[in-house]
Specification:
856 residues, mainly beta, 22-stranded antiparallel beta barrel, five-stranded mixed beta sheet, Beta-barrel_TonB, cell outer membrane
Length: 856
């Protein structure tokens, strides 16, 4: 009720302002450099006022003068001399402003703190990738983007089972459990995307991607313990423009992108964007003769911009993306000798069934799976964003609705045997969110942001999650030599259907202030109060297999699957905050030190829980919230006009780390959620950009990261210790305190360079260029519990581009990825049932192609 009252009050205030302010007097123009190339994100300011705008990707801008004649425009772009243009009358046509270059590095403008500012001045470790940079590097989704930002890790065995981490923290490594929240926030145009599957889809018409590291709960609506992606799309413009892109490559790769924008009326502009990607599969199914793991993605985004007054703009955005690959298949990467009896070892199992793998070399890229792989997903939504300048700041209200539909099929035994015949966790998700915030100047030397946020989520099975056994299941599940296991048809068609609903409500009040104590010393404080409520209704029912009343046979069947039902309703509240001291040593050196206390909300098991004689152990359904203490110090420097060097040292301690454990209940083949007592991640990050001249530039980034369990006494057994017994008693857990956290390489780095020269191509003015990028990482564990076998060796890949680029007109270039054709794994994961074999997610082999782009 209180939130409704607040929202009505704010809406009334916005309406009052929008109906009383006067009309526009627009000046249109384009900002270019001395080589006649448009400059994107140039700052255009009316001298003596706070009114400003920035140029778009074609260098074009529109600004309402708001002032009586005469007036002066100030045009700024880092690395270029500031220009001042005085007007005594309104121009009747678009103006052209040429900025002379200075021999210094272009700075990057960001909006993560809800205002336009230079990244080098912000006391937050942040990486910025421009939309054009991402496109040229072929980073059309987050998985590709991680090669440009080494602090980012993404692991995906399919879109639902996607882990996105920053500095090795964020989400549970391995199979996803929907009962816990991600620790890395993913925002697009201010809208929080709750499903990590969104990170596997293609970017659509992206303007800029900002990756913030460390807790960010006092700047963003949804709490984030490890960092946030702040993605901004290219906005609708009153200046007409369009761009078209088409790429062709080997393995049947085709990618098309298009965007068009312009004015529909004096106060309404629109933008429509499309992206589509297709590629043949990179694995061969030797039984069907088909290639699998293809790409089949489409996305569309539309925007309407309404500017009722010079102080208010309203944007309605609608987007829809879909993915229909015959994909995400994994190959058998190896076999481990477990502690089980000889007859339960993988090689003995498949030998007794008269089966052999199609290849023992995973990089032959051959499979024979008998269940088709399908990863169909639809994701989309609508948002309404209202910005209104009030006083010395801006009030923003963002309302959004989003959906995600998931339709998978997996072969989780990774063989041509009918073991797990079906594994289909079809789901539907919807979310509703509302954020209202005010960012501006509160006092003469105090700026900041304050806001309220609410989100509701409904996740349900559609209509069931299904797991069903085939004729060979008995041999993989057999735990004794009892001949009853060989009963004909006992497990054929035997499975379970799970019906569940998860209802989540979260609300928060958050804020951050920046107190300018002196010109050089700033004190930043942030505070957040959060409320979380989660309700689940879980029901798992077995079906099929041999219909019998034989109690011995029924007992064997229950060792594989069993019925279970429970309901849980939890609520929790949290306070968190941060404190940063920022000191500007000189014009070229900024330093900062931060302490942040954060949390990840309470979790609920949504994959089944252990049972005892009284049924499900309800106490194990609730997972404690993570408590995070984070420290970092950093320096951002511009030692020379053409160089930036930044360094951050960090330490993060997490109590009650949310992770997966195992149970002696064999029906919980995915394990269940629990808390590790404490983990710690510490290290440093360095990044640098250098412009040798207007023809040659370099960028480099390096991350050193150590992550380990300080205390984890109930960890699951590694694959090789499955079946371990102590004094004749089976063991299902071990103390791995001091062990390595999964997914973290000690060293990750990227290095790139760009050599260019002005020229003309088919009458278009631009630059011929040669660019090389490299990405390297050291070895890392791919198992929640350290294992001798599930470790991925370090690797390096090299990508390159050569061609001609122009801001207007035709650009064309050749590109290649993984130029040295390096074989490497992105993830290793045990097969269901822990028979000893494990599968690998393979990195792509060498790919190459041609891209044509035309900008109007």
């Amino acid at each position: 009720m209180k939130n409704n009252t607040l929202q009505n009050l704010i809406s009334s205030l916005i309406l009052l302002i929008t109906t009383t302010l006067f009309g526009q007097a627009d000046v249109e123009g384009i900002v270019k450099d001395k080589n006649n190339q448009p400059l994107e994100l140039a700052n255009v300011l009316i001298k003596g006022t706070k009114y400003n705008t920035v140029s778009d990707n074609n260098g074009k801008f529109t600004i309402d003068t708001r002032e009586k004649l005469p007036f002066t425009l100030i045009v700024q772009y880092v690395g270029h001399q500031t220009a001042e243009v005085r007007f005594t009358a309104l121009p009747t046509s678009p103006i052209e402003i040429i900025l002379k270059s200075e021999n210094q590095l272009n700075d990057v403008v960001i909006t993560s703190r809800r205002r336009i500012e230079k990244a080098q001045n912000v006391p937050i470790p942040i990486s910025v990738v421009g939309g054009r940079q991402a496109e040229q590097a072929g980073a059309f989704n987050v998985n590709r983007l991680k090669e440009l930002v080494p602090s980012v890790q993404l692991y995906s065995s399919n879109p639902r089972n996607t882990t996105i981490n920053i500095r090795g923290l964020g989400s549970t490594f391995g199979l996803t459990n929907d009962g816990i929240d991600p620790g890395v926030g993913f925002y697009v145009d201010g809208v929080y995307y709750a499903r990590p599957a969104a990170t596997t889809l293609d970017f659509v018409d992206v303007d800029q991607i900002e990756v913030l590291r460390g807790p960010q709960g006092t700047l963003f609506g949804k709490n984030t313990t490890a960092g946030a992606f702040n993605v901004t799309s290219r906005k609708a413009s009153f200046t007409s423009g369009a761009n078209f892109e088409l790429s062709y490559g080997n393995y049947g790769f085709i990618q098309a992108k298009a965007s068009i924008t312009g004015a529909l009326s004096k106060k309404i502009a629109a933008r429509l964007s499309f992206s589509g990607t297709q590629r043949d599969g990179l694995l061969e199914n030797v039984v069907t003769g088909k290639s699998v793991n293809d790409l089949n993605n489409q996305g569309v985004r539309g925007q309407l911009l309404y500017t009722p007054t010079e102080n208010t703009d309203i944007t309605l955005a609608v987007d829809y993306s879909k993915q229909r690959p015959d994909g995400y298949a994994q190959v058998v990467a190896g076999v481990v000798q477990t502690n089980r009896a000889a007859y339960r070892q993988f090689h003995n199992i498949i030998s007794s069934l008269g089966y052999s793998l199609p290849s023992t070399n995973p990089f032959d890229r051959k499979i024979d799976h008998d269940t088709p792989w399908r990863s169909g997903q639809d994701l989309g939504g609508a948002s309404l964003n209202i910005n209104s300048k009030i006083g010395n700041g801006k009030l923003t209200a963002t309302s959004a609705w989003r959906f995600w539909n998931w339709d998978p099929s997996n072969d989780r035994d990774f063989t041509g045997l009918s073991v797990l015949r079906l594994s289909q966790a079809t789901s539907k998700h919807q979310q509703w969110s509302q954020e209202i915030r005010y960012a501006g100047t509160f006092l003469s030397k105090v700026t900041g942001v304050i806001g309220v946020f609410g989100i509701g989520q409904d996740l349900k099975t559609d209509p069931y999650h299904i797991e069903e056994s085939g004729a060979a299941q008995w041999r993989f599940s057999q735990d004794s030599t009892d001949p009853l296991w060989q009963t004909a048809g006992l497990f054929n068609g035997y499975g379970f259907k799970t019906k569940s609903t998860l209802n989540t409500v979260s609300g928060a009040i958050f804020g951050q202030t920046d107190w300018e104590i002196t010109d050089k010393l700033h004190l930043l404080t942030g505070l957040r109060y959060n409320y979380d409520s989660k309700k689940i209704d879980y029901s798992r029912t077995t079906y099929g297999g041999l219909q019998t009343t034989n109690t011995a046979l029924l007992a064997i069947k229950k060792k594989v699957y069993s019925d279970q039902a429970f309901k849980v309703d939890v609520e929790d509240t949290n306070f968190s905050g941060n404190l940063t001291v920022a000191y500007k040593v000189s014009e070229k050196i900024n330093t900062f030190a931060t302490f942040a206390n954060s949390y990840k909300p309470v979790g609920i098991n949504l994959g089944g829980i252990p049972s005892d004689a009284n049924g499900p152990i309800i106490a194990l359904a609730k997972i404690k919230p993570e408590k995070v203490n984070h420290y970092e110090i950093g320096i951002k420097s511009t030692p020379f006009n053409n160089t930036t060097i930044n360094l951050t040292v960090f330490n993060t301690d997490i109590d009650n780390y949310q992770t997966l454990v195992q149970s002696e209940d064999p029906t919980l083949n995915r394990g269940y959620l629990a808390n590790a007592e404490k983990v710690r991640v510490r290290g440093f990050e360095a990044d640098s950009r250098i412009t040798i001249s207007q023809y040659l530039s370099f960028n480099a980034a390096l991350t050193y990261n150590e992550g380990h369990y300080v205390s984890f006494k109930n960890a699951p057994l590694p694959l090789e210790e499955t079946g371990l017994k102590v004094n004749g008693v089976s063991v299902f857990s071990k103390d791995v305190s001091g062990g390595q956290l999964p997914g973290i390489s000690k060293w990750i780095g990227s290095l790139g360079g760009d050599l260019s020269k002005e020229g003309q191509f088919f009458g278009n003015q631009g630059r011929f260029f040669l660019a090389i990028d490299s990405y390297s990482r050291s070895s890392f564990s791919s198992s929640a519990t350290p294992s001798k076998y599930l470790n991925i060796q370090g690797y390096s890949i090299f990508n390159g581009r050569i061609g001609f680029r122009a801001s207007e007109g035709l650009s064309v270039y050749l590109w290649g990825r993984n130029l040295l054709d390096k074989n490497y794994f992105e993830q290793l994961l045990p097969a269901a049932g822990n028979a000893g074999h494990y599968a690998g997610v393979l990195g792509d082999q060498r790919t190459f192609g041609l891209t044509l782009r035309y900008n109007l």
